[in-house]
Amino acid sequence: MAIEGPLHKAVLSALDFGVVRSPGSDFGNLLFPIARSLIGQATMGGTLVYPTMRQIKIGTYLRREPDKRTYGGIVRGRSMADWRIWIESMARRQVDEDAVAADDVTITYTGLKKFFHDLVGYEALISNWISTNRIDKAGDRMPIDIGLHIRRGDFTENKTGSAGQSMQIPTHWYRQAFLHARDLLKIDRPRVVLFTDGDPARLASELNIENVEVDAADDALSSILNLSRARVIVGSRSTFSKWAVFLGGSVAIWDAAYDISPYWPVRPDKDIFL
Question: How far, in Å, CA of 185 to CA of 229, rounded?
């Protein structure tokens, strides 16, 4: 049976072999073209091409990071019907998402575009796709009062006070943001969970927060979903933090020195800059 209408395909790497692809972005950035392909399919009709998630990754092994970020095994694999659609997508003429589309083409969604500005109003659509397709793992389901996301890894130490992305935020700022979050919640002993790709023991000690827990998830998607359950999220400059806030609708505390506006539609009632 012929596949009618345009195909909507998230392009996550330069080379996609179906079972694996060449090195690409971290998971938070991969979600942008996937989300826009979902929106495209919902608004224009046609069929979604199920994305190739597993990627080749070397740097995470060299840095001995716990999460190797290959992203295999975090969402379900392709069904036979999905494979048929993927093969069809390769045979069709490829057009960019900004081009005028026809029924017999594959519309490709690439890169970050306008980040979360492109996704406003489609939170439920995107959240439902993640919930439906993720490989659900037994884990912590208890409510979280305050989630702290401290990005280290490949982020640069911010010695110049840059307002841009991919910069580390000093640990002492997280301590002040935690105190502010605790005051907001009016809880003396909130449940605090630390999400980090740095040294959890060292950061927990530097934070000097009593009984801080460390997120035990073993993949990026599970961690994002865990963080999204926090009532207040203290965010890094990473899209990981923003995805958790986007999916959970949480109150968020951001670094005031960070110009978040190019990436995030500021919510006056929920975004706090400290």
Answer: 15
124 burial (CB, 10 Å; 0-12 / 13-18 / 19+) is exposed
What is the Cβ-side half-sphere exposure of residue 48, based on CA atoms within 13 angstroms?
18
CB 224 within 8 A of CB 247: yes
- Residue 137 gets the label, from left (phi > 0), alpha (psi -120 to 50) or beta, of beta
For Cα atoms 62, 64, 69, give the angle at the middle one, nearest 5 degrees: 85
Q: Please give the chain's pLDDT, 274 residues, in tens.
A: 679 999 999 999 999 999 999 998 888 999 999 999 999 999 999 999 999 999 988 766 666 776 677 888 899 999 999 999 999 999 999 999 998 888 999 999 999 999 999 999 999 999 999 999 999 876 667 899 999 999 887 777 776 677 667 788 999 999 999 999 999 999 989 999 999 988 899 999 999 998 899 999 988 899 999 999 999 999 999 999 999 999 999 999 999 999 999 999 999 999 999 9
In this structure, what token pair is assigned to residue 16?
């996609």
| Sheet order of strands, 47-49 included | 47-49, 7-11, 105-110, 93-96
Angle between helices 27-44 and 220-228 (to 10 degrees): 80
User: Mind giving me the DSSP string for 13-36?
Assistant: SS-B-SS-BS----HHHHHHHHHH
Cα separation, 173 vs 234, whole angstroms: 10
| Residue pair 220/26 in contact by the 8 Å Cβ criterion | yes
